[in-house]
Amino acid sequence: xxxxxxxxxxxxxxxxxxxxxxxxxxxxxxxxxxxxxxxxxxxxxxxxxxxxxxxxxxxxxxxxxxxxxxxxxxxxxxxxxxxxxxxxxxxxxxxxxxxxxxxxxxxxxxxxxxxxxxxxxxxxxxxxxxxxxxxxxxxxxxxxxxxxxxxxxxxxxxxxxxxxxxxxxxxxxxxxxxxxxxxxxxxxxxxxxxxxxxxxxxxxxxxxxxxxxxxxxxxxxxxxxxxxxxxx
Length: 232
Hints:
The chain is an alpha+beta fold. The chain contains 8 helices and 7 strands; from the N terminus they run H-H-H-H-H-E-E-H-H-E-E-H-E-E-E. It folds into 2 domains: 3-101, no CATH class; 107-220, CRO Repressor (2-Layer Sandwich). Strands 2-1-3-4 form a 4-stranded antiparallel β-sheet. A hairpin with a 5-residue loop joins strand 3 (145-150) and strand 4. Helix 2 (15-37) runs antiparallel to helix 3 (47-65) and helix 3 runs antiparallel to helix 4 (71-94).
């Protein structure tokens, strides 16, 4: 077993100092690049900007480790990427279609206390992630929410009903969701576990949701708000 090759590869230990210097230079390049974009957090990045960050990371990594890849080579890559970023940003400012293509656009996830028609056809939106985001925002049940918009950053913006207008809805908390059933024991108002639509369901009958038309499993609709619930 050759520990020299395992630890240093084809180089000697003097190359470690060179790696440190290369890494410092590339770190400064990446840092300055991020400052140019004006972004302060990952959540502020669009898909397009995230691709640029990945490209920068790839361009920065090789010069840090490989002697045959010069730092100036990576600098040329950086200049081209940021020039492309600047040009596309100008296009985005003047062409809404290009902006929608590169940045995406916000869309309604919740309307009037239940999942919107748009969200029901959005296959990439997983319900468990959706409910998790609502819990993080302090939502106890969907009847509290008048509207919810999924932003291009991935954040969710919520508009709540005034306390006196809160309606019964689907609780997004696991203990309630685990009680779903396709046959209810008592006639009452229940919430669809797929879209949050509330409707009367008769005892012993298998009922399909009238809103999403996809689900026949229900839980008892909750009329409490987050401030009234024992969970908060």
